[in-house]
Design brief:
The complex is a heterodimer of chains A (447) and B (431). Chain A is globular and about 60 Å long. In chain A, helix 4 packs across helix 7 and helix 12 packs across helix 13. Chain A is α/β, with parallel strands linked by helices. By secondary structure, chain B is α/β, with parallel strands linked by helices. Chain B is 32% helix and 18% strand. In chain B, strands 5-4-6-8-1-9-15-14-10-11 form a 10-stranded mixed sheet, with helices on both faces. The relative contact order of chain B is 0.19. The chains are: A alpha/beta (447), B alpha/beta (431). At the A-B interface, strand 1, helix 5, helix 6, helix 7 and strand 8 of A face helix 4, helix 5, helix 6, strand 5 and helix 7 of B. Strand 8 of chain A pairs antiparallel with strand 5 of chain B, so a sheet runs across the interface.
Chain lengths: 447, 431
């Protein structure tokens, strides 16, 4: 252990700044895992995304390079200036949600309920008798948009009596977490975090705290369903959405013609289990291990954005230090890929500051789906685990001419590569920066 | 390497509550047993079943917000900014001041702000414009504010507080419905315990007194129908209770690692010795009368600080004033504290300041911290007629001097969330 690293009795690193800044990419700064660290494994994935419903459907679509961002269906979006989005076109809520629950909930919750079911099925998870042993800790971004717009329209057009009994439970940000907990009988410490696009990673960060404190299984991630008239308009006002009418022109992260991004709906829910508990129940599969997490804030907001990527880079360094992983051990970075030139430049700055110029393959798979707000970073975690399983870095979509000055090794064609450690990055509107480190599962701790 | 658990203390408190101004105004009001509930003035409530609320007479400009800060932010964010200002000033920390010898590193300062419904008021106001009062499903972008994205996603509250104090550590908004306030302070404590921050600005804010919020609680009859006597409409634990009174407000606490606070000679209100939450996995709005899950949360929160139930000197109740909640909660406290439940004072602030959804948990923590510091228990206003199912000591109407070395605050929310936090005098046990 180096002098710069201080570990408290819960096994967490408390001072890592010196390590991150002073250590060259080669060599391990931390030789032993922190004492008492809870090992947290991903044992189940549930995906409901524009690329498909189901893990393999999503992954095969990515590998085929199918653009799931298409002209918006369901309403005439032409007046919003933004006409393309990643919608989940083959989602059948009746497959996952019983009718009496369906009428009480928004499409956002249908997707969360579906993804939670898929994750539990994938894991073969049968909840233990001890109901407090399973937690639901999801991220939310914008709540039950379509449901709420209907009710609020009724209120203003017809009066208070037209507001139905379920508005009070369908719209608020905790609706999906509460419904999953109730449907599946999970009584553990549960929560909801909102940090816009960073939420999916942050839910995993909080799940680690829950697990460290003794809850062996936590459902994490989240979904989003904001491709609805009012929610779309709200997102348009960020000034970050592309107005290009052709899908392939709309969301081009790190490209010379980057002009904003497309939004999308859906996301992913993952089952995380403490290693001993997963072993004890005979978990059928381990997708990977969550080994590091870091989060920072720019302390700048949208109207006065951060002038540089200092805090974003620090989030990555915190996560690597937490994982005890050196930058050169990382085989792939899944980037936030905002598709807004200024934001792309800052992200490139953060990545090259940590990994060096062209130091690591970088991909931005949300280019295929659109940005799913809180659901997007959760989906990127699922994608990263699939990439690790198959040894393939999936390509970034819509990139014709990558900006050379960014100094990124941007992956434009699927690339075979043995992946042992991967990093997923996310940013949330308003200055949130998060980074997650995943490692291929090994029975014994290395080092 | 530190061999002991990192301990968390509260060194600053800021409050925006109905019927009062700031932390001391709030404390004076609740210990006087004064209520802030009144007929709604923000809009004409005559078409609504429940026409009563606890409103904050809020002038952001006078409280230090700039015109632009108010323009880009919903009322709930403005509340949080003002509460954070007061909390930080109270703590004596010079956050964001480069070079001050006792200023914490900005990178070691985090933000956790809770909110149940975020910018719902602004979303509704703007919706009225872009839909021309509900005429059109396809809304009109020409009438849209350019700050709607911030309204859509409530994480802007954490952003604004982080910007204000240059907090570059972890930041998030916690949104677990009506337990958001307790959970946000609980998460903030965990950030410090886990070594990810030395100081966290933790609290919650909600400003839900708007037509859509009133309408949605009307239909399920969760709010009171007692419109004839607004000042006495909120009656927690009283046999005549008929629902909660909507409120609004915010409280922000400065949480600080104990040694960090001691090194700079900070005044300490109390220590956060435990926090836990559980889900009842029962119903989005219904509560089983037995209170088992809330009791489990309370037991766990006490156990984290190795505190026995008999040491608890004050229970700050959720006490929303709905039939089922007050019964549920009474049962939970009995389950956890046993015989001691009958002798410990337990009161509900919602009798005075209403139920500000996610915010109230943090306002209740502020009051509980002050109760520990000042050894005074605030009362339950309007309590007159006992309910056989609610048979504990609810501190009717009048505040009470009482030995409070340990206090607990509990909360319960839509979605089935049950949370508990334990505050104690920091010198009650050896370091």
């Amino acid at each position: 252990m180096t002098d710069a690293t201080v570990i408290n009795d819960e096994g967490t690193i408390t001072e890592v700044a010196g390590y991150a800044r002073d250590t060259a990419p080669e060599g391990r700064a931390i030789t032993a895992p922190p004492r008492g660290t809870t090992r947290l494994l991903v044992t189940g994935l549930g995906v409901v995304a524009p690329t498909g419903v189901g893990v393999e459907e999503h992954w095969q679509s990515l590998l085929r390079g199918e653009l799931a961002v298409r002209p918006i269906e369901g309403f005439d979006a032409s007046r919003y200036g933004v006409t393309v989005a990643g919608q989940v076109r083959d989602f059948d809520p009746d497959r996952f949600v019983v009718p009496q629950l369906k009428v009480q909930t928004d499409r956002w919750s249908w997707m969360s309920l579906a993804a939670a079911t898929l994750a539990a099925e994938d894991a073969g998870y049968i909840p233990p008798e001890q109901a407090y042993a399973t937690s639901v800790f999801l991220a939310a971004g914008s709540g039950g948009n379509e449901f709420s717009q209907h009710e609020i329209q009724g209120l203003w057009a017809k009066g208070p009596r037209s507001v139905g009994a379920y508005q009070s439970i369908a719209w608020f940000y905790a609706a999906s977490t509460g419904q999953v907990s109730i449907r599946d009988g999970y009584k553990g410490p549960s929560g909801v975090v909102v940090s816009e696009g960073a939420g999916g990673l942050d839910s995993i960060g909080w799940a680690r705290r829950v697990a460290r404190r003794g809850t062996p299984a936590v459902l994490v991630g989240g979904t989003e369903a904001g491709v609805t008239p009012y929610a779309l308009l709200c997102q348009v006002t960020s000034g970050r959405l592309s107005t290009a009418p052709r899908p392939e022109d709309a969301y081009k992260p790190f490209d010379e013609r980057a002009n904003g991004h497309a939004i999308g709906e859906g996301g992913a829910i993952l089952l995380l289990e403490e290693a001993d508990a997963a072993r004890a129940r005979g978990a059928r599969r381990v997708w990977g291990e969550v080994v590091g997490y870091g989060a920072t804030h720019d302390a700048h907001h949208h109207e006065d954005p951060a002038p540089d990527a200092t805090q974003y880079a620090r989030a990555i360094r915190l996560a690597l230090a937490d994982a005890g992983v050196a930058p050169d051990e990382v085989g792939m970075v899944v980037a936030d890929g905002a598709g807004v030139p200024e934001l792309d430049a800052l992200e490139a700055q953060a990545i090259t500051a940590v990994f060096g110029e062209r130091g690591v393959p970088v991909t931005a798979p949300s280019s295929w789906t659109g940005r799913l707000m809180a659901g997007g970073s959760a989906l990127n975690v699922a994608t990263a685990l699939l990439a690790m399983r198959d040894g393939v870095v999936p390509a970034t979509g819509n990139v014709d001419r990558p900006v050379a000055e960014y100094g990124l090794d941007l992956v434009r064609e699927n690339r075979e590569r043995d992946l042992d450690v991967v990093v997923v990055l996310a940013r949330g509107f308003g200055g949130f920066n998060s980074a997650l480190v995943l490692r291929r599962y090994r029975e014994e701790e290395p080092g | 390497m530190s061999a002991t658990r990192r301990r968390v203390v509260i060194t600053g408190i800021g409050v925006v509550a109905p019927g009062s101004m700031g932390r001391e105004g709030f404390w004076e009001m609740i210990t006087a047993g004064r209520t802030a509930t009144r007929r709604i003035t923000f809009f004409d409530p005559s078409r609504f079943r429940s026409q009563v609320a606890a409103e904050v007479d809020f002038d952001g400009r006078k409280l230090g917000l700039t015109a632009q800060e108010m323009h880009r932010n919903d009322r709930f964010v403005q509340f949080a900014m003002v509460a954070a200002d007061e909390a930080v000033a109270d703590s004596g920390l010079r956050l964001g001041v480069g070079g001050a010898p006792d200023a914490p590193e900005p990178e070691r300062v985090g933000v956790t702000i809770g909110s149940a419904v975020g910018a719902t008021t602004r979303l509704e106001d703007e919706y009225v414009q872009v839909s021309d009062a509900g005429k059109h499903w396809l809304v009109d972008p020409r009438y849209a504010s350019r700050f709607l994205h911030q309204a859509l996603v409530p994480s802007c509250a954490a952003t604004e507080v982080a910007v204000r104090f240059r907090a570059q550590g972890p930041g998030t908004v916690v949104s677990t419905g009506c337990t958001s306030g307790i959970d946000a302070v609980g998460y903030g404590s965990q950030l410090i315990e886990d070594g990810d921050a030395d100081v966290v600005l933790a609290g919650a804010s909600d400003a839900p007194i708007s037509p859509i919020s009133m309408a949605c609680f009307d239909t399920i009859r969760a709010t009171t129908g007692n419109n004839a006597d607004p000042e006495h409409a909120s009656k927690p634990f009283d046999a005549r209770r008929d629902g909660f009174v909507m409120g609004e407000g915010s409280a922000v606490m400065v949480l600080e690692e104990l040694e960090h606070a001691q090194r700079r000679g900070a005044e300490i209100y109390c220590e956060v010795t435990g926090y836990a939450n559980r889900c009842n996995a029962f119903h989005m709005t219904g509560l089983r009368p037995d209170g088992v899950e809330m009791s489990e949360a309370l037991d766990q929160a006490l156990a984290q600080g190795r505190i026995d139930g008999s040491e608890v000197g004050y229970v700050n109740a959720h006490g929303s004033g709905t039939k089922q909640n007050d019964r549920h909660e009474t049962a939970a406290v009995k389950l956890s504290l046993g015989e001691a439940a009958y002798s410990v004072p337990m009161s509900s602030l919602k009798s005075m300041v209403g139920h500000s959804l996610g915010a109230i948990g943090s306002i209740e923590i502020a009051a509980t911290a002050l109760a520990v510091q000042r050894q005074v228990v605030p009362p339950t206003a309007n309590y007159e007629v006992p309910d056989p199912e609610c048979d504990l000591d609810y501190v009717p109407k009048t505040a009470r001097d009482h030995k409070v070395d340990v206090a607990v605050s509990v909360g319960s929310g839509f979605g089935g969330f049950q949370s508990a936090i334990v505050l104690a005098k920091p010198d009650r046990r050896p370091a």
